[in-house]
Amino acid sequence: MRxxxxxxxxxxxxxxxxxxxxxxxxxxxLRRKLLTGAKGTEIMVDFPTTTTLDHGDALLLEGGGAxxxxxxxxxxxxxxxxxxxxxxxLAWHIGNRHTPAQLEPDRIxxxxxxxxxxxxxxxxxxxxxxxxPFFAEHGAYHAHSHGDGGHxxxxxx
Length: 157
Known about the structure:
The chain is built from two helices and ten strands; from the N terminus they run βββββββαββαβ. By secondary structure, it is mainly beta. The protein has a six-stranded mixed β-sheet, with no helix packed on it. Strands 8-9-7-10 form a four-stranded antiparallel β-sheet.
């Protein structure tokens, strides 16, 4: 088993890639975990803090080489609106429910949830089943205090 002690954001061209690990959205946020690559490479991720990995990032391996991260396809809803203003209102309702969402100029992607689907259709949205990688927006704040009672902007490392 090889240890991954840090990660390299994409693009990371200087380090040879020895394997690839495909992870869903929630699985790409980790601190300490045993992973297995597509070629069977076992990797123990051992970061000092919880880290969010993106598609194309790499885990830097102890002893050399890297394992590239790929985003897995997930079962999602594709939400489309009548116009830009309508899409903004739908995004507000999704955010009001603290639902992870991938925001794009002409659509929103969320994980499948029949209750949200019914609500969104009731608000006039077109909701379709899709299967594709999910890149939800990262939260703006940490979940812990920094001593002054305020929030700090999210650190992706």
